[in-house]
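Changelog-adjacent note: as of this version, every example in the card shows the full chain rather than a window. The one below runs 220 residues end to end.
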Amino acid sequence: MLLDIGCGSGLSGETLTEHGHHWIGCDISESMLDVALERETEGDLLLADMGEGLGLRPGVIDGAISISAVQWLCNADKSSHEPRLRLKAFFGSLYRCLARGARAVLQFYADNVKQTEMLVSFAMNAGFAGGVVVDWPHSSKARKSYLVLTCGAPSVHTSLPKAKGQDGQMCSSDDDDDDDDESNDDQTVSSFLTIQFSWFIHFELIYCSKSPSLVCCFIP
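Full-length structure tokens:
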């Protein structure tokens, strides 16, 4: 069972379904979940604020993905919101609901370095191993950041993959233009699926060539 955090209208969940996986999607927006229902997505949908904790039983989730959602935990959108408390609640509950050794790939857009540091710090304090991978760090349009986490202590299998474009490689026009929501969903989901399941599932990933930085980085 996989968890899609900030699932929205279920686009990323459709990719999970196409590869034969069962999933649960949670989102704070009831209107977006209504769209997912209208589109007849096959995942179970939950109306939930991730900053209040995920509310799932311990160890029931085999992996998690998120597309452009977790950065909102760094903001105080309401007077009652305290970012540090919300980050602690989220990462603590994510760690608890994941099976030991499970992986999570959380794609995010941070406003500044401080927000990235906050995300990493609270993830590590919750017990995760891993870190941040940034594709195309020198491109304002193609740049994408991923928080790549493993549920458990660091080991030889939790090393981070090499990012795209970190050695001065220039991004192609396809990479530079790849900023629409659906493509971003497919890219992150495909990256996660390759990381999480490549040692016991053999399948062809349609969008894998767009993000080789996250391919096969945790194969035992």
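Structural remarks: The longest helix spans residues 181-197.
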